[in-house]
Amino acid sequence: MTWIYPPFCSGILALQGLSVLLALSGSDAKNSGAFCPICPENANCSNSTHCACKDGFQSPSGRRYIKPHEKCEDIDECRVGLAKCKKEAYCRNEIGSYYCSCFSNHIFNWLARFIKLDNKACYEAASEETPVSGNIQEILRNNGSKEHIAKMATQIFQKMEVIIWTEDLASPGKHDNSTLGIVYEIKRCNETSEKTVLEAGNNTMDIDCTGAFKGTIGDRSAVALITYQSLWDILNGSFFNDGRGTQEMKLNSRVVSGTISTKKKVYLSEPVFLTFQHIQPGGARRKYFCVYWKGSEEGGTWSTEGCYHAGSNDSHTKCKCFHLSSFAVLMALVPEVDPVLTMITHVGLSLSLLCLLLAALTFLLCRPIQNTSTSLHLQLSICLFLAHLLFLTGIDQTEPK
């Protein structure tokens, strides 16, 4: 017997069958984990397709997405500088995290080295943000004392990186923001490429993408170079103090910032090379320092830590740095050499050497005058000859630190 259903009933049966199929397929997908692979310890499934290390962990390769056989290692936030502990607090690393230990009474603070005292007062407080709504040069010029300018500059550098990586501005290519007084370039940088070169305001940055993103946490992979057009005469050489004297220093380049799109950065396995264009041509007796802005809650100073001078000519200086920050080139203003004084020194020392040599030969070869007194004079002549010779050969081999 054949049953014939009306069209309406046929539609109901079709919908019921479709519901059963959807339920079964949904159950299968749920049971299969939506094709998510089996991830190693301290890793989670991301986007149902890849494994990614949890916060506080990183893979040995430094890549965000890892292979099933890779491990996720704990990041020592205290060692690599990610911890936000106050200076008087002791930082202690934990698996996947860290804590700051300190006593409110500084007399007993040394006990915090041995006792876990995870106190909110031990952590750096978030400082008030400096609004960046106008030209950076004007913002700093209108902020009085040197200490306040340094503090404002630190906040501006941090805020500027946030502004650069907003959705509206973080598009690849070269940009010019006259309102803020900056020019910058952004490039996409995948982990397989070797070198990426960026240029902004006649300054360049040569960065190894693999090394830059090793140990990072973030989804996007892009690098940016920012050149501040007007900060060089405000954050000048007076903000540099290396403790080696009062030698006059002058900022002889624009201030630049190198940054990557990830929120956290552990270290650079390969150095970043920055080439700065001089504001004023260099000279023969000039010493250059590659510096970065070392910010703190109290303000900030120029520091040479982690940055090295790689070479200079009259128009450019090349620096090698092992971290990303805000950089510049300081030039030591060495006094010019007086050519007349130099000539008198060389001629006088040469004549003195000749006379001392003749005196030594006389005391040595003339037997009739040899006695105890001439022996002493011979030794004195030889000592003076060697001292004058050392001074003459080394006078052009020295330079100020």
Please give a handful of descriptors for the protein shown.
alpha+beta, 20 strands, G-protein coupled receptor, GAIN_dom_sf, calcium ion binding, Adhesion G protein-coupled receptor E4-like, signal
> Topology as H/E string?
HEEEEEHEEHHEEEEHEEEEEEEEEHH
Q: What is the overall number of helices?
A: 7
Main β-sheet description? 8 strands, antiparallel
Instruction: Point out poorly predicted stretches.
Output: 1-33, 127-133
User: What helical percentage do the residues reach?
Assistant: 25-40%
CATH architecture of the largest domain: Sandwich
How many structural domains? 4
Mean pLDDT over the full residue set: 76
From the alpha carbons, calculate the radius of gyration and give it in angstroms: 34 Å
| Termini separation | 108 Å
The first-level CATH class of the largest domain is given as Mainly Beta
What structural category do the secondary elements indicate?
alpha+beta
Relative strand content: 25-35%
The total count of strands amounts to: 20
CATH topology of the largest domain: Chondroitinase Ac, Chain A, domain 3
Overall geometry comes to: elongated
